[in-house]
Amino acid sequence: MSRKDWKNIFVLLGSLSKKHKDVLVGLIGLSVFTALRPFVAVILTGLLVDAVYAGKALEELLRYVAVGAGATLLMAVAEAVLVMLFNRKLEYMQEIQARPLNEKSMKMDYEYLENVEVHEMRQRLERLGGWSLTARVLSTLNKIVKEFVTVAVAVCVVVPMFVRGSHPVSQGFIGSWLMSALLLAAVLLLVGFEFKFGSHFNKKLADARKQMSGHETKNKYYLDIMSGYEKQKDLRICKQQRLYEREFEEMAQGIKKTSDKMSQYACWNAFTQQSVSALTGFLVYAFAGALACAGLISIGGVVTYAASILRFTESMGRLVYQLSWMGGNAILAKDYIDYMELPQRKHEGCIPVEKRRDDRFSVEFDHVSFKYPGSDVYVIRDLSLKFEIGERMAIVGKNGSGKTTFIKLLCRLYDVTEGCIKVNDIDIRKYDYAEYCNLFAVVFQDFQVFAFPLGENVAAGSSVDEERAVDALERAGMGERYHGLPGGLDTSIGKEFEESGVTFSGGEKQKIAIARAIYKNAPFVIMDEPTAALDPESECEVYAGFDKMVGRKTAIYISHRLASCRFCQDILVFDRGKVIQRGSHEELERQEGLYRDMWNAQAQYYA
Question: Which of 271, 361, 403, 500 could form a disulfide with 389 if both were Cys (CB 3.0 to 4.6 A apart)?
Answer without folding.
Answer: 361
